[in-house]
């Protein structure tokens, strides 16, 4: 007898067969990520592919949240999980429980991704780095209270500057809670404001052991700190995100102690040298000023203070004489010019002609000058102007004469 199954029954049957397969229930798959989608629920959907095939994959939120790096399209990865059938769609897929980069560690990928993202945000910019104080009155150290790191820092500081002030904020430097404690310590020092500089210190270790100093929360606490931060994590060859975010990186915790606190003996020698140079400079300036004062005292201005005044008085007198003489010459020049002009005017003046016996005849009523005998009639009143006065006359007769052919 032939069985007739529903679609759901077929998909359920196939799921049962696949689920019983030992190989498909726990396997690693190598491939390249494509079409990755981050759902709002936190689940991750993507495709793994190689040169010939592809397989649908899903990683639920509980597993995706534990990834140390962010999967991206084109990234080659190794995925651990099991193959099963999604009954609704009749589609088999890989249910991913673990993922790591193919050929490179997940922590290394996470380190590079976070480093690049924070760099793009400007957390590592050199222009925002704060200057480390020359002689801090108090030093804050964020580190484990046990171990050799804190002892090394204390020994170095005690050797370089015995009367130093140190405040230790004990934290875990390894493990899940370490990053949160480190960030909290940096923020607490800023709230209290009782130190001038902060040192983040830890000894060497593997990438996993140093990972708390690669957490974003630590980098942002350093970036937001108003107090300068020195990162002294691991050995000289170890680099963490904290190193890039800090205002200064020290290769080791001991080196950080040497950087933050100058050697007292050298400071004292420098102060003595500066004091000696200052004294020599003061003596030199005093000697130069004494010589300058002696030159001034021996100068004419101090020996004969009125000499310059007398010289200026004589110059003023000479200038006054020159001015008076110039004014007199100018006055005489203008007087002579005026006399000459007066003589010219007198020579051309009609009044001057009258003194030689000539007269000017005008009509009595209109005062119009009479130039011709034709303008005079019998009985007409005229005025005759002479050099010393005028006479009113009445014409009693008119005679016309010709002189040299000209009519007068």
Structure report:
The protein is built from 13 helices and 15 strands. The chain is an alpha/beta fold and 408 residues long. The chain has four domains: 98 residues, OB fold (Dihydrolipoamide Acetyltransferase, E2P) (Beta Barrel); 152 residues, Succinyl-CoA synthetase domains (Rossmann fold, 3-Layer(aba) Sandwich); 48 residues; 52 residues, no CATH class. The chain has a five-stranded mixed beta barrel. A five-stranded parallel β-sheet has the order 7-6-8-9-10, sandwiched between helices. Helix 5 packs parallel to helix 9 and helix 6 packs parallel to helix 7. The radius of gyration is 59 Å and the shape is elongated. It starts with 6 loop residues before the first helix and ends with a strand. The model has no long low-confidence stretch (mean pLDDT 86).
Short characterization:
This protein has helices at 7-19, 22-25, 61-64, 106-121, 148-160, 178-192, 216-224, 241-245, 253-260, 264-297, 300-303, 307-348, 350-354, and strands at residues 27-38, 44-49, 54-59, 76-86, 91-101, 139-143, 166-170, 197-202, 229-233, 248-249, 360-363, 381-386, 389-394, 402-403, 406-407.
Number of contiguous helices: 13
Percentage of residues in helical conformation? 40-55%
Rg from C-alpha positions?
59 Å
**Second-tier CATH architecture of the largest domain:** 3-Layer(aba) Sandwich
The top-level CATH class of the largest domain is Alpha Beta
Terminal-residue CA separation: 176 Å
